Amino acid sequence: MTPFGFQLLAEDGSARRGRLTTAHGTVETPAFMTVGTAGTVKGLQPQEVAATGAEIILGNTYHLMLRPGAERIARLGGLHDFMRWPGPILTDSGGFQVMSLSKLRRLEEEGVTFRSHIDGSYHQLTPERAMEIQHLLDSDITMALDECTPYPADHATAEQSMELSMRWAKRCKAAFVERPGYALVGIVQGSVYPDLRARSVAALTEIGFPGYAIGGLAVGEGQEQMLETLEATTPLLPRDKPRYLMGVGKPDDLVKAVLRGVDMFDCVLPTRSGRTGQAFTSRGAVNIRNARHQDDPRPLDEETPSPASEYSRAYLHHLFRASEMLGPILLTLHNLCFYQQLMTRMRRAVEDQQMDEMAKAFFAEQARGDIPPLC
Fold this sequence. Notes:
By secondary structure, this protein is an alpha/beta fold. It has helices at 46-51, 61-66, 70-75, 79-83, 95-99, 127-137, 155-175, 194-207, 223-233, 251-258, 269-275, 313-321, 326-351, 355-367, and strands at 5-12, 15-22, 25-29, 31-35, 57-60, 89-92, 105-107, 112-115, 122-125, 141-143, 183-188, 212-214, 243-245, 264-267, 278-281, 284-287. The strands form four sheets. Strands 4-5-6-10-11-12-13-14 form an eight-stranded parallel beta barrel, surrounded by five helices. The longest helix has 26 residues, at 326-351. The protein is globular and about 65 Å long.
């Protein structure tokens, strides 16, 4: 079986172009991972997701352990067979979801005890159980269990949280079942404090992981602080290992993070926005529900090929106003196409040593605003 690995193919400043190899295929980086939280990208079949250019998707341990259950998925052949996605899968450890249940969970050294948001039943998620669940799911990339430090947090609170995550990371490494093509990724914590981020990187690299994630960002700190934290963190990470910024983000977040050395991203934004009528286009975000689109025969975005581009803005507007399910499906597909085309554009830019120029052009395009309405 193919071993797990990361090949750095090109660099342009801090921006990187690489290739990730897993048990279920390769992933070209910089990469955006489409989120399929509960074993599905809402409203889309796997082949439709693949047609957008997606090479890897993300599933979530918390949701899948509660419903339908990791053991059941394992009996049915693992998550790849269960959802009919043949490519690589990364699974979040569930830590972020559990930590968000502040009134329904109890945090201890052993792990987290929480009540299900579905039926109120009690569950415990420990580093060892998180590894077991993700093994049952057959995740190509397993995420270590961590405590996602809330924002804002004072230095002492962030330090205590980070140190707990590092102790859990060590237990995850001990419990992870090593096999060709599969990998466990450690998660850097430390809130917005550079000294804590540096200590977290040092602890994780001492444990040793084939990949490193940057967690605890995009939780309310704002883009400026997020970018400052990245600038303090990514230079400390091993050059020959992939870097994953968790839960990010908007298109301009992706470009700015790639400029700062990030290789992988995930976010629910393109799919969630598509379901509510917001489209990401070459001229910025568009709300297709707005009345200005109701008589417009033009396509949503002439510069972004997608299934939605085959229809007029007037028709897409009608679908949302009539609550027809095709509307959210088409805009979800469009947004995923836009994100994947943006990643392709950045990969080519790094290869051509043109990343700064590409970024400037992209920001200028976005600043134009949507096409003027028809009179």
